[in-house]
Amino acid sequence: MTRLTSWLTPVAFLASVTALYMALRYAPPERFMGNVQRIFYFHVAAAWVGFLAFTIVFVASLAYLRRGEERWDRLAAAAAELGVLFTTITLLMGSLWARAVWGVWWTWDPKLTTTLILWFLYAGYLLVRAAVDDRRQRGRFSAVLGIVGFLNVPIVYMSSVWWTSIHPVLRNQAETTLAPAMRAALQAAVVAFTLLFVVLLVQRVRLARLADAVREVRTAGAWKG
Amino acid sequence: MKGAGSAWKDLRLLVGKDLQVELRRREGLATLATFVLLVALAFALAFDPSRRDLSPLVAGAAWVAYYFAAVLLFGRGFAREVEQGTLDGLLLAPVDRGVLYLARVLVHVIVLGVLELLLTPVILAWLGFRGSPAWEALGLALFLGTVGLAATGTLLGALTASVRGRELLLPVLLFPLTAPVLLAGVEAAAAALAGHPGDAALWFRLLVVYDTMFLVVSTLLFDFVVTR
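YS: structure for the whole thing
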């Protein structure tokens, strides 16, 4: 694991610098929105990473309930923390962009509604983790939430699509085709954020494993003393 | 694993027991009913039905009132069992954990259903509703939504029962998980109140899908939530 991060960290750093360059210099300014559209590259990349993280929470939660091994719980917890972080970034960037382009800080578009509800869901997941002291109970409780929450996502998305299609929509973000340079910048941003996510995830899991090991040594010592 | 007949008997016994507990503590139900009416009163005072027509808002107001009452109800049941140590007794009994869960869902649906039956006319009157609602469709919308709330809320009520800060955690967890129920429930009830429930066919179907999915998944996961 440490060997993995020792080369992955510089790679993620280089990818991030490249992605910054491509988003800010290489890609042309958008015809109507101008430079503010450059938020798009990192906004989409952060949203993708957030969703990837919650998928990992789901898979790790299933594995934990099946096998009961601590490492799956640690992986789910780390992924949930990062997922909330990247979803927060997505929401903040999206809000700035919406203000500049649509003239409002928030609108109840299906994607926005779903992302916000996801954010609340996994923030609650982290709150439960913080409130339960017994490790096995915490693992089981959060695994149940990780599974139920993930299954809820498609229903939330469908219902918010129907909801906004009945209510007046402020403006629909049209699915436009991207210029090749823009597509390349988007791909660079997605790759960079994914690598950054993996580095952070590996480090976070390692930290949790060390913390558990320290606690075990401490309790063993207290037992003897 | 026991046969279906025996599971059915367990379910009836458990539901009977919980309903008896609820009836003996009548003040619990009275408090819930008062609470629903207070939310409706708050809506009436905040939006003043004597000066504008609140008819389009009534479905949302009623659902918000029932939603809050449901949160209070879900938080109570298992927490009381944990405090009095009766949950351990239930878990030791040779009853399938899924049946334990379904029985509690049923009790929650019955209690909330009685509240809705009694109080919906009051809410309609207080908020100055005008129009000719499709009553059967309104009842169906409330029922399907209540089943969805109870399916998720019962699982979360058991999950948070022994967690510190449960009074705050339960609503925080319940809301994002039941957001589709609230959305669909309000849209379905609004269409029924307007007398055109057919417009909300999609929402009724969504409620059925949600209810089925969460009843099945929660029945399977309930064991992990109560095991200690």
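YS: worth flagging: Chain A touches chain B at residues 65, 117-118, 120-121, 123-124, 127-128, 131-132, 137, 140-141, 143-145, 147-149, 151-152, 155-156, 158-160, 162-163, 166 (CB under 8 Å).
IM: good catch. Also The radius of gyration of chain A is 20 Å.
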